[in-house]
Predict the structure of Metallo-beta-lactamase domain-containing protein.
Amino acid sequence: MAGVTRVTGVRVYDVGQGDAVALLDQDEAPFLQIDYGGRQGNPFAVRGAQRIDKTMPVRPGSLLVLTHWDEDHWFSARRGGAARQATWLVPRQLTSPRAVMFSADLDEIYCVPEKWVGNAKCFVASNGDAFWWEKIGSAPRPPASHEDCNLTGLACSIVRAEDKSVILLPGDAPLHAVGHYKQYLGGAHLLRGLVAFHHGSKSDWNRTTRHLLRGFAARSPTFDIAFSCANPNPYNHPHIRNYLEAAPRATAHVTANLRSVGRSSIDILF
């Protein structure tokens, strides 16, 4: 993370049904992007490409981490121009012909080696703040025709060096499936923020997930949870109640509510 002296938090964009999250540097400016999605219910119908690039700025050559190949996590990059000039880090997964064609249009793209599955990696700012990412499961071998890409993609987090507080960025991966999240719970880490996995879906929500979130909530005075989804959507996202029952002191934010107050993003800051 050259030139980044510290990480101040994340910016969760309103992209409708999908995810797009930027890491913020010492000036609270985006320097690294996680996903660039949004399709159903996105706010970019008017002046689409221009508005996407202005709302979610991506510097040429900067890193863009794709958590998995579901279209609602990369679709805005297909319409805008800036994100296609980033350096993409992506998981190896079964995917659609549209995703294959889109990937061929990127300036620079790298695939995470399968030998790194379950082995979290990090990039570090000059003060020790760290951005962690982990491929949580192995892609199926040919001639496989099906894959649960939520369980074979990338999950990310940020750790502030000063007090070991964390922001969890799981994409669509359930919390209990991410190895380095469990290590945080076993350590002295405080939870500062969370982008709800799978847009606040109740799928993959189980006792282990609830236990993990309750463990963080017990030691963290308060934290923010962002739910990135469209309103309406056919999936009944988000299921906020699951999260607030496990973490009653948390504050919930829903990206779909931003448009009514003229905003395009939510910042979760350390």
